[in-house]
Prior knowledge:
By secondary structure, the chain is an alpha/beta fold. It has helices spanning 3-14, 43-49, 81-84, 90-97, 108-116, 145-155, 165-173, 177-181; strands spanning 19-24, 30-32, 35-36, 57-63, 66-73, 102-104, 128-131, 138-140, 143-144, 160-163. Helix content is 36%, strand content 23%. The strands form 3 sheets. It has a 6-stranded mixed beta sheet, with helices on both faces. The chain is globular and about 45 Å long.
Amino acid sequence: MNELERRRENLFAMMKENSVAVIFSGVSKIASEDETYPFVVNNSFFYLTGITQEHSVLMMVKGLGERKCYLFIDEYNEVKEKWTGRRLTFDEAEQLTGLANVYSSDNFDNMLDLALTNSNNQYGSIATLYLDLSPEIKISDALSTTMLRDELEAKYPQLSTLDVKPFITSLRMVKSPYEIEQ
């Protein structure tokens, strides 16, 4: 098991049964009409994935004795890279993270909806959602994680939301041999 897989397994061990954790990498902050500040990745996302690109999401599902991780990144586009900078391909993201389930960011909303919907759900009835509720975490220019929490709790009344940041912070406090060596 590599370092990133070990970190995700440690977080899974802290999560309640029938839960989903969603950690966003974040987006660049707007500097002016057509400029953004240099992107700084959400530390929690980086800790679990090793990825530093924006518009990426890690979704961890724990239910019915099963644990699954899904990574969502923007599709590789050579032309867009002239403006956005280097982006990972799905294969590169899979190799870097050790995650087999790497999908386009366009699929995230549907996958989250499938995980949270009670009917025909392969994970059972999801009762807990873990989100990084740090105020500076943005999903898009107009949407923060706290706004997403409010939307999801209204749409799924069975859902209670917990802040995943304290869990990840407690994991980051204990350094592995690899981290000490670095």
